[in-house]
From TrEMBL:
Organism of origin: Lithohypha guttulata
Domain Peptidase M20 dimerisation positions: 223-317
Key words of the record: Hydrolase, Manganese, Metal-binding
GO molecular function ontology, one term from the record: hydrolase activity
Cofactor(s) the record lists: Mn(2+)
One Pfam family linked to the record: M20_dimer
Signal peptide coordinates: none
Record carries keyword Zinc-finger: no
InterPro entries, A to Z: Amidohydrolase, Bact_exopeptidase_dim_dom, Peptidase_M20, Peptidase_M20_dimer
UniProt superkingdom: Eukaryota
Classification of source organism: Eukaryota, Fungi, Dikarya, Ascomycota, Pezizomycotina
Protein name: Peptidase M20 dimerisation domain-containing protein
Cofactor notes: The Mn(2+) ion enhances activity.
Family in the record: Belongs to the peptidase M20A family. Belongs to the peptidase M20 family.
């Protein structure tokens, strides 16, 4: 393949992997149909039984077609599953794709839009509309097409690839569930420890592009439900009560000083009170008030400052307000800091630039305040990892909004209007995963 060769209308630069991909990547039309299937049929975190079964069905079909080289292990951590693909000596890599949807009503108007509904038995047992509003359907499909590429290109690489399909990323518990279920316990699942862990995510960026960052890439996030106790009574007799709404209101305001007065201006942090609930009737002072608080940070040092400050402020305001007992803290979820390994990222960046061309690869993407549980898969065994992003917004739409300075109007992840274009988004997702893996297991 020369520099003039093009794939899906997009120029591909000279790369040691270009000929492998051009010759071995499968026809993606069937994977486009598979993507539409996953998009139409999302399932809420921890309840992804049909999604997991469909992934397993495709993997079994690939095994049947290519002589069963992939050892399948399921279920792991609820609905999770892995495929272990041993193909000679060399490094062991873990490639991860998440597959849960969100409790959200889709409003894209696509002919393959989701109309699914599901009882969220894990959280509140409420029936909810369900949507793949974060692109996990692309992650599944890109991984499956990449797997077929590795099967067809078996003579071009040597090592072991672990294909991990993970549930419940949206609630920050899926990776931990798989680990707690003995993911790396050889006696239980026969999964070897990887030397490197790799993952990717589609975003509302220009399609055809790939984006990376060295070091802190996605924030740590800590979420709590905090119950503030008071003493209820009649609204006309506040002097007989201890009003938890007043105490909680002071907490909400005071928490804003954590970022503005305790974290340095050159550090990035966010404290959000996303929910405040107390009482049901206009003339009744309630017994308690409930806050839900989310904290995001990019370093363990300032994460500790923020969490210590949260407890200090809550305790102090409860004391000041004469709360009859200490506040109750319940941890809702915890996402680790995603901090890409410098050496792994440098090597993958070189491969991305060589393959996609420098104009399509951003190696200095701004760190994202969104959070991921991906890094637990590497942190648990103290291994290096890298997480990157690829664009899903139609190039013409992106260019139009960029020219007008209205990029903020493009529907982003978790929007009911989030609708990445299928191509070249899917192809780039496949290529990026294959190129990153071949960086470490490809035959030179």
């Amino acid at each position: 393949m020369t520099n003039a060769d093009r794939i899906s209308g997009i120029e591909v630069k000279a790369s040691p992997f270009a000929s492998i991909i051009s010759q071995q990547i499968p026809d993606l039309s069937s994977y486009e149909d598979l993507y539409k299937h996953f998009h139409r049929n999302p399932e809420i975190s921890t309840l992804e039984t049909k999604t997991s079964a469909k992934i397993l069905e495709v993997l079994q079909s690939l095994n049947s077609q290519y002589g069963s080289p992939i050892e399948l292990k399921h279920p792991i951590g609820g609905t999770g599953l892995i495929g272990i693909h041993r193909n000679g000596t060399g490094k062991t890599l873990l490639l991860r794709a998440d597959f849960d949807g969100l409790g959200l009503q889709e409003k894209t108007g696509l002919d393959y839009a989701s109309t699914a509904r599901q009882f969220d038995s894990h959280l509140d047992n409420v029936e909810k509309p369900t949507m793949h509003a974060c692109g996990h359907d692309f992650h599944i499909t890109s991984m499956l097409a990449a797997i077929e590429t590795f099967l067809k290109a078996k003579d071009s690489w040597s090592g072991t690839l672990i294909y991990l399909f993970q549930p419940a990323e949206e609630r920050g518990c899926g990776a931990q569930m798989m680990l707690d279920d003995g993911l790396y316990d050889r006696a239980k699942h026969a999964c070897p420890e990887p030397d490197i862990v790799l993952g990717q995510h589609v975003m509302a960026l220009k399609t055809g592009t790939v984006h990376t960052q060295t070091g802190p890439t996605m924030s740590a996030a800590d979420s709590y439900r905090i119950t503030i106790y008071g003493r209820g009574g009649h609204g006309s007799m506040p002097h007989y009560t201890i009003d938890p709404v007043v105490i909680a209101s002071h907490i909400v305001v005071r928490l804003q000083t954590l970022v503005s007065r305790e974290v340095p201006p050159d550090e990035t942090a966010v404290v959000t009170v996303g929910s405040f609930h107390a009482g049901h009737t206009v003339n009744v002072i309630s017994d308690d008030a409930i806050l839900q608080v989310n904290i995001r940070s990019f370093s363990e040092t300032w994460r500790k400052v923020l969490l210590d400050g949260l407890h200090r402020i809550v305790d102090a305001e409860c004391t000041a307000g004469r709360s009859p007992k200490p506040a109750k803290f319940e941890k809702l979820n915890q996402f680790p800091l995603t901090k890409n390994d410098a050496d792994v990222t440098a090597q993958v960046n070189d491969s991305f630039i060589s393959y996609f061309g420098k104009h399509r690869v951003d190696t200095n993407m701004a760190a994202q305040l969104g959070s991921e549980d991906f890094s637990w898969l590497a942190r648990r065994i103290d291994k290096p990892y890298m997480f990157w992003f690829f664009g899903g917004t139609d190039a013409e739409v992106w260019d139009k909004h960029e020219k007008k300075g209205t990029l903020n109007e493009i529907p982003a992840n978790h929007s009911p209007y989030f609708a990445p274009v299928i191509q070249p988004t899917l192809r780039v997702g496949v290529e990026a995963m294959v190129v990153a893996a071949l960086t470490f297991v490809g035959k030179k």
